[in-house]
Specification:
Among the domains are: 78 residues, conserved putative lor/sdh protein from methanococcus maripaludis s2 fold, CATH 2.40.420; 123 residues; 82 residues, Beta Barrel (Elongation Factor Tu (Ef-tu), domain 3), CATH 2.40.30.170. It starts with a helix and ends with a strand. The strands form 4 sheets. Strands 3-10-13-12-11-14 form a 6-stranded antiparallel barrel. The longest helix has 54 residues. It has 4 helices and 20 strands. Strand 11 and strand 12 form a beta hairpin. Helix 2 runs antiparallel to helix 4 and helix 3 packs antiparallel against helix 4.
């Protein structure tokens, strides 16, 4: 007969075994369930929240784009024409001046003294002319005639009388009423009077030449007076053009010479800008074409201009054509020296596909957008073109009206599920 103690022990062992099998069964089921859920979780990526916008088709104006530096339409360094000490300065850096406006005034004492000296020399020369004219009896404005000179007239009268007397003696000599010696004496007297007349005539002509010399001296003195007067005027330095003062090195009390500049003036409306056009675009550029200019100082704003000048030759080194444009700067917002982007607008337009700029993801040299279809992102490689406001042109792989992702683009990849 089996004892009660043995039965209790067998029952306890059987119960422990049963509990162990149950625990094993439960544990195996949990691991299997875990193994079953893990791969499924890894194969189903989480959807990315995106917003979309349709690609649009639009006719875009075409242009040639280049960069260059803005330059003043005209710039001049102003220097005095006479030296002197600065007694007043009428402008400063940034001042706007009109053409003909005084910039600097120099001390006029030396220039005034030179003028007075020149005027005195002119008065002396005029006095010399009057004396020379009086010596030959020439009145102001009268034409010179040697016969009007007293000495010449007296010598001529004496010569004429001697000629008549000699002819009378010739008649008397033929009739025998005078001797040969008397006739010869009269002829010698006539010859002497002729020499005196010729000497008087030569002296008169010489005196008239002295009048000419004196008159030339008066003209030279007049030129010296005008030069001295100009020197008095030149102590005031005027602006040769209208514009802004870009530099003013002259200071009050400083002595400046004709080789020193007192100011630099620039005319800033319009401004000029030079750009180089590739050889293949030469045929598209004409004088008068519209130009738009943008600078970093005024983002989102453009300034109007036109093509003003075109170089006649292409650079042999770069194979580019230099084009100069004039840019309207009536508000004086643009400054010479600024770096600018210039677009030469072409007359024709071309159809283009545009998407919001935030829809394009650029990675180095490649650009891509993500078209959303059936809740899935489809990656499309594209090429970007010109920008129009917040839109950018794309070329290839995107059709008009296709929705493209415009947010969380950096989280997308081809085939990633999305929700909107």
């Amino acid at each position: 007969m089996i004892s009660r103690q043995l039965l209790k022990t067998s029952f306890a062992l059987t119960l422990v075994a049963a509990l162990g099998l149950g625990a094993a069964a439960c544990g195996g089921g949990s691991r299997a369930q875990a193994n079953k859920q893990g791969p499924e979780a890894e194969g189903t990526p989480e959807a990315v929240q995106v917003s979309t916008a349709p690609a649009v088709r639009r006719d875009l104006p075409r242009f040639i784009e280049a960069t260059g530096g803005l330059a003043a339409d005209e710039q001049t360094d102003v220097a005095p024409t006479v030296g002197g000490r600065v007694v007043s300065v009428g402008v400063d850096l940034g001042s706007y001046v009109q053409r003909g406006q005084p910039i600097v005034r120099l001390d006029a004492a030396d220039a005034q003294l030179r003028l007075e000296q020149a005027q005195a020399a002119q008065a002396q020369a005029q006095s010399n002319v009057r004396q020379a004219e009086e010596r030959i009896g020439l009145r102001p404005g009268q034409r010179f005639d040697p016969a009007r000179v007293a000495e010449v007239g007296a010598a001529r009268a004496a010569l004429d009388l001697a000629e008549k007397q000699l002819r009378r003696f010739e008649t008397l000599l033929e009739s025998g009423d005078v001797s040969r010696s008397a006739y010869d004496q009269q002829r010698a007297q006539r010859d002497q009077l002729r020499q005196q007349y010729e000497a008087a005539l030569a002296q008169a002509n010489q005196s008239y030449a002295a009048v000419g010399t004196a008159r030339a001296a008066v003209e030279s003195a007049r030129v010296q007076v005008e030069t001295a007067r100009k020197g008095v005027r030149d102590v005031i330095v005027y602006a040769p053009i209208s514009g802004y003062v870009a530099d003013r090195p002259a200071d009050l009390g400083e002595f400046i010479s004709t080789s020193m500049k007192v100011a630099t003036i620039v005319r800033t409306n319009p401004l000029r800008v030079r750009i180089d056009i590739p050889e293949q675009d030469i045929s598209a550029v004409r004088p008068g074409q519209s130009v738009s200019v943008s600078v970093s100082a005024y983002p989102g704003r453009t300034f109007a201009g036109r093509v003003a000048r075109i170089s006649p030759n292409v650079s042999a080194q770069s194979r580019t054509l230099t084009v100069e444009a004039e840019v309207d700067n009536g508000e004086n917002l643009l400054k010479p020296g600024q770096f600018a982007t210039i677009r030469i607008l072409l007359p024709q337009t071309e159809p283009a596909i545009l998407v919001p700029a935030r829809a394009v993801r650029s990675d180095g040299t490649s650009a891509r957008v993500f078209v959303i279809r059936d809740g899935v992102a489809q990656e499309r490689l594209v090429q970007t073109g010109q920008a129009e406001g917040d839109l950018v042109e794309i070329r290839g792989n995107v059709a008009p009206d296709e929705p493209v992702a415009t947010s969380n683009v950096e989280q997308l990849a081809d085939g990633v599920p999305v929700r909107q």
